[in-house]
């Protein structure tokens, strides 16, 4: 694996601190090689299971965690839930990217409900992993729009009907204005703020305001959670 990936021209600042949580040492080594090749990214924590990750992250704060799902001692879903629960106590909480494959659909939704900011396919190209880390850290967009939407649609189709009933979010969806619903639907289609602004013929700053209000009304931590709510409540249907 070589260090030939595109690096954006970023101003000098502290690198984004990344934690790798995966029980396969070779997987962690490969990820570390790619991440550490970037001047704006740095792996500062490695853990082989959820329990070890929680212990290390208690003393070594990071910005983004790449979290595997299936691990011994404590799985990635439980570890994610415990990490994000600390936000209620005012503690620093990193953004979590769940490492997944298409055969773990039901776990992905649970991870998002637990507070994960998005997901990354384990066989994604290195460039996509780097972009996902930066994008999740910025909190500005749904990560890897095409693969995220594809995974969400696959997820909703795979879930039994009883898991798609109203989860209490229907009332929150009803509180959205017509324009906010339009923006949420476009978010679910993987559109960026710039693209949404172009689609709706409004300023990008206006779109950002709408997104902020949508997140507040839905009680969503970020755009990915808002999009999941849109799918769960039927506002957006797979293939729409």
From TrEMBL:
Family annotation (InterPro entries): CheY-like_superfamily, NreC/VraR/RcsB-like_REC, Sig_transdc_resp-reg_receiver, Tscrpt_reg_LuxR_C, WalR-like
Modified residues (4-aspartylphosphate): 68
Protein's UniProt keywords contain Cytoplasm: no
SUPFAM superfamilies: CheY-like (SSF52172)
Highest taxon listed in the record's lineage: Bacteria
One of the record's GO molecular function terms: DNA binding
Residue ranges of every copy of the HTH luxR-type domain listed in the record: 169-234
Keyword Transferase among record annotations: no
Keyword entries, A-Z: DNA-binding, Phosphoprotein, Transcription, Transcription regulation
Biological process according to GO: phosphorelay signal transduction system; regulation of DNA-templated transcription
All copies of domain Response regulatory, residue ranges: 17-137
A Pfam family matched in the record: GerE
Listed name of the protein: Transcriptional regulatory protein DegU
Species per Swiss-Prot/TrEMBL record: Oerskovia enterophila
Gene from which this protein is expressed: degU_5
